[in-house]
């Protein structure tokens, strides 16, 4: 049985960096992720691409903390 149907919405609480002109505070967090864990924070474009590869479509990104770019990413089938 599928976990989602055409009316389902998945909400992700993540950093969604702008594609350019990133605030220094968010950049600092991204560099910390790189140096400490070998990972990175994603840009909005990267979130769209990642979710598309698993069959999801971004319905919207709502940023609630602009310095950190903490955001709710809503995606559906």
Fold blueprint:
Blueprint: E1 10-17, H1 24-37, E2 42-43, H2 44-53, E3 57-65, E4 70-76
Organism: Cudoniella acicularis
GO molecular function: methyltransferase activity
Protein name: O-methyltransferase domain-containing protein
Overall description:
With 77 residues, this protein is of the alpha+beta class. It has one domain (10-76). Helices cover 31% and strands 34% of the residues. It has a 4-stranded mixed beta sheet with strand order 2-1-4-3, with helices on one face.
The oligomeric status of these chains comes to single chain
Whole-number mean pLDDT:
93
Q: How large is the share of residues in beta strands?
A: 25-35%
Q: Could you give the order of the helices and strands?
A: EHEHEE
Count of discrete structural domains: 1
Shape descriptor reads elongated
SSE-based structural type: alpha+beta
Largest sheet: 4 strands, mixed
Global Rg: 14 Å
Gap from first CA to last CA: 15 Å
Q: Could you estimate the helical fraction of the residues in percent?
A: 25-40%
What is the count of DSSP helices, taking H or I runs of 4+ residues? 2
Q: How many strands appear in the DSSP assignment?
A: 4
Uncertain stretches: none
InterPro entries: COMT-like, SAM-dependent_MTases_sf
GO molecular function, one term: methyltransferase activity
Protein name: O-methyltransferase domain-containing protein
């Amino acid at each position: 049985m599928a976990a989602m149907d055409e009316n389902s919405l998945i909400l992700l609480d993540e950093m969604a960096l702008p594609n350019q002109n990133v605030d220094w505070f968010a950049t600092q967090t991204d560099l910390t992720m790189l140096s400490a864990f070998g990972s990175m924070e994603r840009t909005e474009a990267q979130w769209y691409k990642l979710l598309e590869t698993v069959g999801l479509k971004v319905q919207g990104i709502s940023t609630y903390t602009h310095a950190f770019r903490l955001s709710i990413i809503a995606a559906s089938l």
